[in-house]
């Protein structure tokens, strides 16, 4: 891929990433507003953060479906190569993760005093979880292209979803009080990177096999 | 400009053979008409040539370089396909589609796209899924013309368009062709209207390329001969007959003259009625059951 084509991939990725980020931001702001209107009892920053994390994780996991069904066929129908579509996909991930991390950083300044010390931990967990979800999403998509929807769903449910539930339940149950467990954070971060690299490599290998249905 | 070549190209969808051993050369600066019955493989062929689908076997090249996953080749090809409500682009607004087109087509002409949008009286903020079938066709036409790609394929560009818009399209196409000398391949079922525009015709039948020929020369050797059955049988035995219609004791046959054959001897026979065929009638004769 030459420099010009790489920029094409970036431009398309930014275009799609923008749209996904806007949807995520809208969902989070909407929830925060509802909580705010419902009154001080319901309005807790920790609740909003957990909600935002949940929404973003699920969203990140679903992005490949949208990419597979819409974005890759669109790219390809406009004369892009599948490899170019693959790089656009990575840009979409980059933008959505960046958007959520930035949102969290901004939120950290608004956190009440009792939660402020956990700000960095919250950010680390959120970042890692989103990277993990992006990896899982790509792995599942690659698996789907190679096999079929049944195998993909079975492996997804058996192997990946328990880890998602674990991460989310950890945050929900402990309400960030035990989030200083460095081992958990480092482990999660490492696992996320491995999952992302696996997803990236598998997807890169399978992208040429995509038969677009227009 | 380079030529596009298909060498023994086949495409299978599971058990079904959509295209079988297609050998084709597309030369620059021509308007090709791609015709065939429903399911003949027109869209599949255009998808393969534009690198949007992979062939099951064979090779497709542009100037000796393979088209598949070759961005340099793909930059010269635009395949503007029929949009449906369920297609991947239906969720976008027109202006968003144009933004994507600008990213991928190196010679995208924004001014032309804007001008055509105004001519077709379309709003760029409208979502594709909200457009009527005819309006969707207008969008595909705008993208095809404004892409300025050297090879531009239009799949059913006039589907859903009214007669005025169809005439307008052919006018725009010829205008653009004269100015830019691009190559257009137009797949259509409305042959009668488009016949005058086609320089060359490619006829697909059941996944095979039946013929590829200059439109005028093809029509100049196609005739329908009718008369009494025994006379027809006797006088047309040396001709290749492509279709036969029986009506009582009369018979009507369609012949496509070979290079060394002439229709004059048959024209001189008073008992025969010899009429030249237009492209549409010839197509019906070649592709009917």
What does the model show?
The complex is a heterodimer of chains A (214) and B (289). Chain A is mainly α and 214 residues long. Chain A has helices spanning 3-38, 45-77, 82-110, 119-146, 149-174, 182-206. In chain A, helix 2 (45-77) packs antiparallel against helix 5 (149-174). Chain A starts with a helix and ends in an 8-residue tail after the last helix. Chain B folds into two domains: 4-215, P-loop containing nucleotide triphosphate hydrolases (Rossmann fold), CATH 3.40.50.300; 221-287, Alpha-Beta Plaits (2-Layer Sandwich). Chain B is 33% helix and 30% strand. The longest helix of chain B is centred in the middle third of the chain and has 18 residues, at 163-180. The chains are: A mainly alpha (214), B alpha/beta (289). The interface between A and B is medium-sized, with 26 and 28 residues.
Please supply descriptive tags for the structure shown above.
heterodimer, A: 214 residues, mainly alpha, 6 helices, 83% helix, 0% strand, globular, B: 289 residues, alpha/beta, Rossmann fold, Alpha-Beta Plaits, four-stranded antiparallel β-sheet, 11 helices, 14 strands
